[in-house]
């Protein structure tokens, strides 16, 4: 195992969350690359092909999240993140050298790349929650979101800077440059220790204590946490051989699994990635200007996302998770629905109105649903099923992302943008209802306390934090 004496806690938290940079870069890079790819391969009239090229990464991520969950329970969080980083490197390079008009090649390679994206989305929050003390878990897990949106902003800036190159070179460089942060991630993770909870689960108590000694403030805190983990692990290790999909939805775990997976699914079905993937095309449809000339808008959205993620780091452990999700989801819903209402009342309203409302949506999303989804996924699942349940939540999240990315260009080809976003607005309201009904409050509770209460009571009757 890595010698933790040479690994400062800040380094652990930084590179523990650095996978989010790659996650974010691959989410955002196609936003700018797509207009050039469309022109280079003459895809303007092929809505389904565009949808598949954009959403192929999310399709692969559906399986990457599930596979990573199982691998991380066998190999450990650290080794699985290293494997994901290598896939990032190879997939990025293969994307950049796609043959001309190689639509099927690019779709296949991006599905392969999606395996790593899905793995990162599942492993990073799980790793961070297991390393962070309860009092700081929301804030430190929120670093994951800051990394994701920083990766998105980086991709938007690179897209903007490269837009002056010939079309066939510009989009290839945009996609291929993701290999650079992937190599940085690989080098950093080589120095990371394994999760203490994984080590305890595998009877490596000395190693677990050693890791905790560099990320906890005193010996009493370390001893208390080791005892808590051991007490939970003793019971759960006996049952670990029986863990399956049916186990996760058994009476003991069902309520917390439904809560975590449901929040992860709603985050995507609310439609945020329709903005992030297609904002140049949205501006193009609203104004009539070429999509390739609208690449400043993704940068603006990226700045909003980064600022929002920093706001979350300040407020993460000051407000209840459920309260932030409720307020954020409500305003997000109104931001999607009001443009359709105003368009109905004022048919000749400024078409850029929708972009203004989308910016409001992004602002609220950036410090509520975007980071809190992964905080909840990282802290709500019991240890015995955490790897697989996190993978399942990640897969459902990516199913939503895949469907939004695939269907948005098809939907906007058959109905107005305002109507499409109004549909997403209704989903936002449904997400708020789900949170108020099924999701327990987890702020300030240790992972063992969350499991104990969640196992004793159905979530419908779980009143903590209400």
Automatic annotation (TrEMBL):
Organism domain of life: Bacteria
Residues that span the membrane, as ranges: 12-37, 49-68, 80-98, 104-128, 140-157, 169-192, 255-279, 294-316, 323-346, 352-377, 389-413, 419-439
Family annotation (PROSITE patterns): MFS (PS50850), SUGAR_TRANSPORT_1 (PS00216), SUGAR_TRANSPORT_2 (PS00217)
GO function terms (MF aspect): transmembrane transporter activity
Domain Major facilitator superfamily (MFS) profile residues, every copy: 12-443
Family: Belongs to the major facilitator superfamily. Sugar transporter (TC 2.A.1.1) family.
Entry protein name: MFS transporter
Native species: Sulfobacillus benefaciens
Organism placement in taxonomy: Bacteria, Bacillati, Bacillota, Clostridia, Eubacteriales
């Amino acid at each position: 195992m890595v010698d933790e004496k040479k690994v400062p806690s800040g380094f652990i938290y930084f590179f523990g969350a650095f996978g989010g940079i790659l996650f974010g870069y691959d989410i955002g890079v196609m936003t700018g690359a797509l207009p050039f790819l469309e022109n280079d391969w003459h895809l303007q009239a092929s809505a389904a092909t565009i949808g598949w090229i954009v959403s192929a990464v999310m399709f692969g991520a559906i399986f990457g999240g599930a596979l990573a969950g199982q691998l991380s329970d066998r190999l450990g969080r650290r080794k699985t993140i290293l494997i994901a980083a290598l896939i990032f490197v190879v997939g990025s390079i293969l994307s950049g050298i796609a043959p001309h008009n190689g639509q099927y090649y690019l779709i296949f390679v991006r599905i392969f790349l999606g395996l790593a994206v899905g793995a990162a989305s599942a492993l990073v929050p799980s790793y961070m929650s297991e390393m962070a003390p309860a009092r700081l878990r929301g804030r430190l897990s929120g670093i994951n979101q800051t990394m994701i949106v920083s990766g998105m902003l980086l991709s938007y800036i690179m897209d903007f800077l490269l837009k002056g190159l010939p079309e066939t070179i510009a989009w290839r460089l945009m996609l291929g440059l993701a290999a650079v942060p992937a190599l940085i991630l690989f080098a950093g993770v080589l120095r990371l220790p394994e999760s203490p909870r994984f080590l305890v689960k595998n009877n490596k108590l000395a190693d677990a204590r050693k890791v905790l000694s560099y990320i906890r403030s005193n010996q009493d805190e370390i001893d208390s946490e080791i005892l808590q983990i051991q007490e939970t692990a003793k019971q759960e290790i006996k049952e670990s051989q029986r863990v399956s999909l049916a186990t996760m939805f058994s009476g003991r775990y069902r309520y917390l699994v439904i809560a975590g997976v449901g929040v992860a699914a709603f985050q995507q079905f609310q439609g945020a990635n329709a903005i992030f993937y297609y904002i140049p095309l949205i501006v193009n449809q609203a104004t009539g200007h070429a999509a390739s000339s609208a690449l400043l808008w993704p940068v603006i959205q990226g700045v909003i996302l980064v600022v929002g993620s920093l706001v979350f780091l300040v407020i993460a452990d000051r407000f209840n998770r459920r309260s932030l999700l409720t307020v954020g989801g409500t305003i997000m819903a109104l931001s999607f629905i009001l443009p359709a209402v105003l368009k109905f009342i004022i048919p000749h309203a400024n078409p850029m109105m929708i972009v203004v409302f989308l910016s409001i949506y992004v602002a609220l999303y950036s410090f509520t649903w975007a980071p809190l989804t992964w905080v909840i996924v990282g802290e709500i699942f019991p240890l015995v099923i955490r790897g697989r349940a996190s993978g399942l939540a990640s897969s459902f999240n990516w199913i939503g992302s895949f469907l939004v990315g695939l269907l948005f260009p098809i939907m906007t080809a058959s109905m107005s943008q305002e109507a499409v976003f109004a549909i997403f607005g209704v989903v936002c309201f449904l997400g708020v209802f789900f949170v108020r009904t099924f999701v327990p409050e987890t702020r300030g509770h240790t992972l063992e306390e969350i499991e104990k209460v969640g196992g004793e009571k159905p979530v419908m009757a779980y009143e903590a934090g209400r």
